[in-house]
Design brief:
Blueprint (H helix, E strand, L loop, with lengths): L1 H19 L3 E3 L10 E5 L6 H8 L4 E2 L1 E3 L7 H13 L3 E3 L1 H6 L1 H12 L3 E4 L17 H9 L3 E7 L16 E4 L14 H20 L16
Parallel strand pairs: 1-8, 2-6, 2-7, 3-6, 4-5
Antiparallel strand pairs: 7-8
């Protein structure tokens, strides 16, 4: 039922997104046609979790703090509708802060053969730079065996501006599954995660064209 609702909403929303913003989406051929997969993307705006499901041909699920389902007023109803529509997984604040609950929920999603979206920086970039990645995507790849598909978003921060951005200003560049085969299989899991994370961030940077920052994002929230 949730899957039908997701694609029903996507079918309804996509023409409006195309008409108003006309996002440029490239690399759709890199999206696996079956099985679980991990989307590792840069994070420029709160609407990134809206843009990605619209751009991708397969369902992408996210985790989000459970309080987003219970906010009051029109904004709360809109958030409730959206996160229900995209079949997001509510996780309590304590679990999100530790990261463990979010990643365990993500692992279940991947083992069910679905796509999962993660922002390795941990939270959105407020200065437009690409910040160091956390190891959640690498951990999921090691534990699930699913491919990591890098994504570079550009221009999504303009969608929250008061002025309507120029059509075509937003782009979604989807890269090929990252090859980790040259990493020593005998290395410790910790070393593997560090090497994989470095490669994931390099691939995202090539797709997004962002300059790099050595400073982690200030938020301690999980990668949602």
């Amino acid at each position: 039922m949730a899957r039908r609702f997701y694609f029903g909403v996507r079918t309804f929303v996509r023409p409006f997104v195309t008409l108003i913003w006309n996002p440029r989406v490239t690399g759709l051929e890199n999206v696996p046609t079956e099985g679980g997969f991990i989307i590792a993307s840069n994070h420029l705006s709160n609407v990134d979790s809206f843009v990605l499901p619209v751009a991708f041909p397969r369902q992408i699920r996210f985790v989000a703090k459970e309080s987003l389902w219970t906010q009051k007023g029109p904004r709360g109803r809109l958030l409730n509708w959206f996160f229900t529509a995209v079949d997001a997984v509510p996780v309590n604040r304590e679990a999100l802060s530790s990261g463990k609950g979010a990643l365990q929920s993500a692992l279940i999603i991947l083992r069910e053969g679905a796509g999962f979206g993660i922002y390795p920086e941990g939270s959105r970039s407020r200065d437009g730079l690409l910040h160091p990645g956390k190891q959640g995507a690498a951990w999921l790849a090691l534990e699930s065996g699913c491919p990591v598909i890098p994504v570079g978003l550009k221009g999504t921060e303009q969608l929250m501006a008061k002025k309507i951005p120029e059509r075509g200003a937003v782009s979604v560049r989807i890269g090929a599954a990252i090859d980790f085969s040259d990493i020593d299989p005998g290395a410790s899991k910790g070393l593997k995660r560090r090497l994989m994370t470095a490669r994931i961030m390099d691939e995202i940077q090539q797709l997004s064209g962002q300059s790099r920052s050595d400073v982690p994002t200030s938020s301690a929230r999980a990668e949602i």
